[in-house]
Amino acid sequence: MDTTLRTAGRRAALQSAAALGVGALAGCATGATAQGSPKTPFSVADTYIPVAGSDLQFPVRRIYCIGRNYAAHAREMGSDPTREPPFFFQKPTDAIQNVAPGTVADHPYPSLTKNYHYEVELVAALHRGGREIPVDKALDCVYAYAVGLDMTRRDLQRAMGDQKKPWEIGKSFDRSAPIGPLHLVAQTGHYTKGAIWLKVNGQTKQNANLNQMIWSVAEQISKLSEAFELAAGDIIYSGTPENVGPVVRGDVIECGIDGLPNLSVRIV
Ligand code: MN
């Protein structure tokens, strides 16, 4: 890098630090490049989801998922949908597998499982957040929506549940979150009703309506914000309807939500 530029950058950093009344100025300045990003021994990939119809990429901060949010699915998982408050888990950000519309992406069958399940879900992507967000303000946080798959190693999830241990190995593994591009609320409005469906090898497996959610997206955001400070970049998998089931290598999953392009993956 040009020495003049670097010096100028350091001077700017020192001046802004001084303006903020920050101590140990030299220490602050030497750790940063002229752009202000930290010096690191290696780079780590960030995760993005394409925004449909633009060159924008949505930067992913956290992936939240809601459990048992359709009554019939709650019953098939062995719980009473009338009594349970919503509960949430997370996937790691890099679990995202971007899938372009009109393509069939190869999706690797993961290690360790013998019962690998699909769950089609509406995904809400946030451009703002906060704590204790009231339900009537919650949808203001939603920037866009997408179709997503909450892929699940069901045997491992159940085994860990039976042992009262965390679900991570069943839910939060590599590439467990295939997703289509984001569609802006400004262009599409909010998704509160409409078909949500999934086929395996052309045969319908899941077929329900978004209006059957127990907790709406607005209620999910409000409830989540009681437990976590939400922020721009967070996405929320809003739960799957009934008739989840297994896939094996060679199967093709196609799924969709009214008003969004279909999402397809081949299990390899
Ligand atoms: Mn799910």
Strand content: 25-35%
- What is the element string, with H for helices and E for strands? HHEEEHEEEEEHEEHHEEHEEHEEEE
How big is the Rg?
Answer: 21 Å
Spatial strand arrangement across the major sheet: 4-3-15-8-9-12
Q: Please tell me what the overall shape is.
A: globular
- The helicity comes to 10-25%
**How would you classify the helix and strand content by structural class?**
alpha+beta
Biggest pleated-sheet summary? 6 strands, mixed
Number of helices: 8
> Which ions, cofactors or small ligands are bound in this entry?
manganese (II) ion
Mean pLDDT across the residues is 89
Distance between the termini: 45 Å
Q: How many individual β-strands?
A: 18
Task: List segments where confidence is low: pLDDT < 50 over at least 5 consecutive residues.
Answer: 1-32
What can you tell me about this protein's structure?
There is one protein chain. The chain is α+β, with helices and mostly antiparallel strands and 268 residues long. It contains 8 helices and 18 strands. A 6-stranded mixed β-sheet has the order 4-3-15-8-9-12. The N and C termini lie far apart (45 Å). Residues 1-32 have low confidence and may be disordered. Bound molecules: manganese (II) ion (MN). Manganese (II) ion is lined by residues 65, 119, 121, 150, 237, 239-240.
In short:
The protein is α+β, with helices and mostly antiparallel strands and 268 residues long.
Write the layout of secondary structure elements.
Elements: H1 3-20, H2 25-30, E1 48-50, E2 57-59, E3 63-67, H3 71-76, E4 87-91, E5 96-98, E6 105-107, E7 116-118, E8 120-126, H4 135-138, E9 142-149, E10 152-153, H5 154-162, H6 168-171, E11 177-179, E12 183-184, H7 185-188, E13 195-200, E14 203-209, H8 217-227, E15 235-237, E16 245-247, E17 252-257, E18 263-267
Parallel strand pairs: 3-15, 5-11, 6-18
Antiparallel strand pairs: 1-2, 3-4, 7-10, 7-16, 8-9, 8-15, 9-12, 13-14, 13-17, 17-18
The protein binds manganese (II) ion.
